[in-house]
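Q: I have 92 residues here and want to know how they pack in 3D. Can you give me a structure?
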Amino acid sequence: MTNENYSNLQHCLDDYMEQSGKQVINEMEANSELARCGLMEDDQAEPGRPLRELLARLRDSNLLPRNIKQSFGAWVIKNSRSLQVRQQIFLF
């Protein structure tokens, strides 16, 4: 998967979080939204598994974005656009 594909996934999730008024979602909700948009298939038997596997590969290769964390085995995905705004505020 290329950086452009990762960018498309992140853009889709950011749009979803802004439209739903959420700042944080889990991997199951994120994978469901990506499947709805046609960017990534979801596993009906294990919802969220394809995204979990992708995030684990990114973590292992040290390419995981700053807005995605793993806490006690669960993935937490934050709106990356809100992180950018906060960084700009702290820089001034």
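Q: Anything worth noting?
A: The mean pLDDT is 89. Residues 3-20 form the longest helix (18 residues).
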